């Protein structure tokens, strides 16, 4: 995702019903807030629940949007549509950490999710696009996803024009981290025949 503010900043701009809340926001509480219309639909900065805290995300810039568009198109072309659903900037549920992150791209088990969010066991690939949120995505979110056992997590670094790949989650961290640039292609664990070439992702035609 784009810029992620500190939890305290998000709380100050959040509705009064929870602005002064000191205990963590649980997934159940978050769902009740959504159902009750607590969040102002006119709010320009969407919120994301991470580790019991509400984080405010900034509007998406053109480079970020372009990368998400390209990744969405690439994903739709390479997945098995009978087995994988490609979700774009929609939430997951990680109950053990009271989190509902909204990754830019998620490959999840194919089904309808009108009744619930996808769970970590249903995720085969997550991708975040980062510029100023790079530290948050490679540290906080990487730890969150590793603890949830998500095997393949990529961060597209718009600043250095690379794709950072996190794999082998163990004890709340990824044992393997590699960076792919230019023609150094990356292949999803769930679809080894698929190839993403960073040079194509960062092309500016």
- Indicate the low-confidence ranges by residue numbers: 2-19
Q: Count every helix, treating DSSP H or I runs of 4 or more residues as helices.
A: 6
Helix content: 25-40%
Strand order of the largest sheet: 3-4-5-6-7-8
Integer average pLDDT: 88
What's the alpha carbon Rg, rounded to whole Å? 17 Å
Number of strands: 8
Question: What is the helix/strand order?
Answer: HHHEEHEEEHEEEH
Which structural class should the secondary elements be placed in? alpha+beta
Biggest sheet record: 6 strands, mixed
What sort of overall outline do the alpha carbons produce when their principal axes are compared? globular
As a percent range, the share of strand residues is 15-25%
| Termini Cα gap | 23 Å
Question: Care to give the gist of this entry?
Answer:
This protein is 27% helix and 24% strand. It is of the alpha+beta class and 205 residues long. The strands form two sheets. A six-stranded mixed beta sheet has the order 3-4-5-6-7-8. It has a two-stranded antiparallel sheet with strand order 1-2.
